[in-house]
């Protein structure tokens, strides 16, 4: 291969027959995939080298004779009834054909008609699939060379039989053959000018049938993906032919006679998925989005209990469309200004019906549905230009603060919208703060939010006083998302090292010397609300939730107040009531949050915040563990294992010697979460730091084997994986334990759970 880049046909000429003979033998007889791959690369390089060589008037064209010998030795294998050497031959032919446009034309002229002929001769689906996969390989090579040249292309002259073969595969009962047919169709569709308008319409018909009515979900999903791939190339065909058919199926109402409700619902689900999948071009999005919203409005008026899951399905489809629109400014703005006001209007309508005790639309207020709407609004907002985002925010924020509903479609509501108002009858309206969070926390950082300080105060009050945990948590997250992006106050540059015992009263004035700054003021207010709530009362858990989210918002942006808040959290690990939840809070601080405070929604996330958090707080966790009573030690271990779990592995390896004894102690803890976190922390270390881990092999073997009989399935699986990972330690270290481990691992081979048995087989076999 390296020679072919330097030498030309003159130097290669005398070796060509023997090189071909050797390469062919290796591919036909090899037991090694690596050798086969290198042989095919060498053949490709040889063909490319001969294609590049400049011919003089008296020199022989070696490429033709070289390709002739390849065809002569491989072609007949494609026709053998047992199909024994079909794949090796096809691979050799494709390696040569991919070298240049000239080699491609030379080989396909001979091979494509032969493959088409073989497809019709063989009747078994498995044989047809093999032949179509080979054909697909050659079609993909044509893709590499781009436009189909009319005068030279074999493919164009075989348009009718190629389409016929692909369409016959799409109607075959074999799912595997269908899948190859769908792949082939996407390749044909990507070849400019290959499919005629009648072929395209037939292709769309096949895709609709497979997407909606094919029993096997693999074929259905593949057909939807293919439609999404081809739609940008043929937007008129898909918006004119596929979208109306899907809309018709979706609107067909209740299950037909003799059709079970389950089948009908499955068809509706597939219609929704297909509408989303095909929305890959702005002109199609303009057709599909109104259909999805109309369906959602129709369901809002329904009163069935099953309504919730159906509404979630529509939201999932809208979310997929939103993600597909993000890279196209026009499509993104169309989606945003169409979908966001519509979702808000429906949710507001449902909340008001709940406030006035009328029944329909209740599904829209379910946590599950609101949680499904959040990613739709978020994805529709993150990619807006600052100008368009500013235009949108000027409507949405006044809706929540002033009840300004004039921008919503169908805005004649039975009462006023006051999500931040007092009174039990407004509980439903308060839940919609989740949608406000989705919107304002996804805006670009440079977009000014009108009445932001008032909004922050309202969110803070709601997060501390609301009786509904869902509403209180979303208000806390929304508050944290805005604080994270808020321009820094003067206190932002102050010394972060304020002692934890200063929490009460005067400590904040030390780290924030300028209370006139808006951010400093709002943080002071937040601390004043959290402090008494954490000490006593019925809403301690809500105060902790607010503390966690505000701490995360500040940790991500390196705000100096974050260390004081973290110290308060560390102090809560020793609290009887809040200790376990505070320990789990360390996972929230370190993990990527799916809906707010991540880079995708423009949050201020510093690049090494996890390492910094580790350096600042792990020594305090270790110190707290040693000083804690026996009942509280588990909380410190749990907090520590969460921090270590999210730390980049190279950093963890360097800190391993100081922390390993504590991790081993954590394995003896009875808390399943601690055990699981510690095991998942140790697993990569066994692979990446075998020398250090070898020093503790005796303890590790004992602990892992004990945990293979844990009552928790997840712990048993993790322990078996660690027992398996032990085999990466030096053999001399492991040999004394071999017999003991093999005997101990015989027991989980009979575990009642299949996944545990599977891990046990792998681990025991390795030992």
UniProtKB/TrEMBL annotation:
Pfam families given in the database record: MMS19_C
Domain MMS19 C-terminal: from-to ranges: 271-726
Self-association state and partner proteins as the record states: Component of the CIA complex.
Chief site of localization: cytoplasm
Role: Key component of the cytosolic iron-sulfur protein assembly (CIA) complex, a multiprotein complex that mediates the incorporation of iron-sulfur cluster into apoproteins specifically involved in DNA metabolism and genomic integrity. In the CIA complex, MMS19 acts as an adapter between early-acting CIA components and a subset of cellular target iron-sulfur proteins.
Annotated GO CC locations: cytosolic [4Fe-4S] assembly targeting complex; MMXD complex; nucleus
InterPro entries tied to this protein: ARM-like, ARM-type_fold, MMS19, MMS19_C
Keyword line: Cytoplasm, Cytoskeleton, DNA damage, DNA repair, Nucleus, Repeat
Family: Belongs to the MET18/MMS19 family.
UniProt organism field: Mystacornis crossleyi
Lineage: Eukaryota, Metazoa, Chordata, Craniata, Vertebrata
One GO term of the biological process aspect: protein maturation
Record flagged with keyword rRNA-binding: no
Protein name from the UniProt record: MMS19 nucleotide excision repair protein
Compartments where found: Cytoplasm, Cytoskeleton, Spindle; Nucleus
Keyword DNA repair: yes
């Amino acid at each position: 291969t390296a020679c072919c880049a330097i030498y030309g046909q003159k130097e290669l000429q005398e070796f060509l027959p023997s090189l071909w003979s050797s390469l062919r033998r290796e591919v036909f007889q090899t037991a090694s995939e690596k050798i086969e791959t290198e042989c095919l690369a060498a053949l490709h390089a040889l063909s490319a080298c001969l294609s590049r060589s400049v011919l003089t008037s008296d020199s022989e064209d070696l490429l033709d004779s070289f390709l002739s010998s390849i065809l002569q030795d491989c072609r007949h294998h494609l026709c053998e009834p047992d199909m024994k050497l079909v794949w090796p031959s096809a691979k050799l032919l494709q390696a040569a054909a991919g070298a240049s446009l000239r080699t491609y034309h030379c080989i396909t002229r001979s091979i494509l008609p032969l493959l088409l002929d073989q497809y019709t001769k063989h009747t078994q689906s498995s044989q047809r699939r093999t032949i179509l996969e080979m054909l697909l390989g050659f079609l993909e090579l044509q893709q590499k060379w781009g436009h189909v040249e009319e005068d030279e292309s074999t493919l164009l002259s075989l348009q009718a039989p190629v389409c016929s073969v692909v369409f016959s595969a799409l109607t075959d009962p074999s799912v595997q053959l269908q899948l190859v047919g769908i792949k082939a169709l996407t390749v044909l569709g990507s070849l400019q000018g290959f499919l005629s308008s009648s072929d395209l319409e037939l292709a769309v018909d096949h895709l609709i049938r497979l997407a909606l009515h094919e029993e096997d979900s693999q074929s259905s999903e593949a057909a939807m993906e293919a439609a999404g791939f081809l739609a940008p190339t043929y937007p008129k065909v898909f918006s004119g032919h596929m979208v109306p058919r899907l809309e018709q199926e979706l609107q067909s109402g209740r299950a037909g006679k003799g059709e079970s409700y389950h089948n009908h619902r499955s068809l509706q689900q597939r219609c929704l998925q297909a509408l989303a999948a095909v929305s890959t071009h702005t002109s199609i999005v303009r057709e599909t989005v109104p259909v999805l919203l109309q369906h959602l409005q129709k369901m809002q008026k329904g009163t069935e209990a099953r309504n919730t899951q159906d509404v979630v399905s529509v939201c999932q489809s809208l979310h997929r469309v939103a993600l597909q629109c993000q890279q196209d400014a026009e499509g993104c703005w169309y989606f945003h200004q169409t979908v966001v006001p519509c979702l808000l209007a429906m949710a507001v309508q449902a909340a008001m019906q709940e406030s006035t005790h009328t029944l329909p639309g209740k599904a829209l207020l379910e946590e599950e549905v609101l949680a499904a709407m959040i990613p739709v609004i978020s994805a529709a907002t993150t990619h807006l230009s600052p100008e368009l985002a500013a235009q949108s925010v000027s409507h949405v924020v006044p809706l929540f603060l002033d009840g300004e509903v004039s921008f919503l479609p169908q805005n004649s509501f039975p009462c006023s919208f006051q999500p931040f108002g007092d009174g039990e009858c407004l509980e439903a309206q308060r839940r919609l703060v989740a949608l406000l969070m989705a919107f304002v926390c996804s805006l670009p950082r440079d977009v000014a939010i009108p009445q932001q300080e008032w909004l922050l105060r309202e969110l803070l009050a709601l997060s501390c006083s609301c009786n509904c945990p869902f509403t209180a948590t979303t208000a806390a997250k929304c508050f944290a998302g805005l604080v994270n992006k808020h321009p820094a106050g003067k206190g932002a540059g102050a010394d972060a090292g304020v002692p934890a015992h200063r929490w009460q009263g005067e400590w904040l004035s030390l780290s924030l010397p300028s209370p006139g700054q808006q951010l400093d003021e709002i943080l002071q207010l937040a601390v004043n609300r959290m402090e008494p709530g954490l000490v006593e009362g019925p809403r301690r858990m809500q105060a902790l939730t607010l503390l966690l989210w505000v701490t995360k918002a500040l940790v991500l942006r390196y705000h100096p107040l974050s260390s004081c808040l973290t110290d308060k959290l560390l102090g809560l690990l020793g609290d009887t009531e809040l200790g376990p939840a505070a320990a789990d809070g360390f996972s929230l601080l370190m993990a990527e949050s799916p809906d707010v405070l991540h880079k995708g929604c423009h949050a201020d996330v510093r690049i090494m915040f996890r390492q910094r958090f580790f350096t600042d707080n792990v020594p305090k966790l270790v110190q707290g563990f040693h000083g804690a009573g026996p009942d509280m030690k588990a909380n410190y271990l749990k907090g520590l294992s969460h921090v270590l779990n999210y730390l980049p592995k190279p950093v963890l390896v360097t800190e391993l010697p100081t922390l390993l004894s504590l991790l081993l102690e954590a394995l003896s803890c009875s808390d399943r979460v601690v055990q699981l976190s510690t095991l998942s922390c140790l697993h990569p270390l066994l692979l990446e730091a075998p020398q250090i881990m070898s020093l503790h092999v005796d303890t590790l073997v004992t602990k892992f084997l004990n945990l293979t009989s844990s009552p928790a399935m997840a712990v048993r699986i993790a322990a078996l994986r660690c027992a398996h990972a032990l085999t990466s330690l030096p053999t001399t270290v492991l040999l004394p334990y071999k017999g003991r481990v093999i005997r101990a691992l015989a027991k989980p081979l009979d575990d009642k759970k299949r996944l545990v048995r599977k891990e046990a087989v792998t681990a025991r076999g390795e030992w």
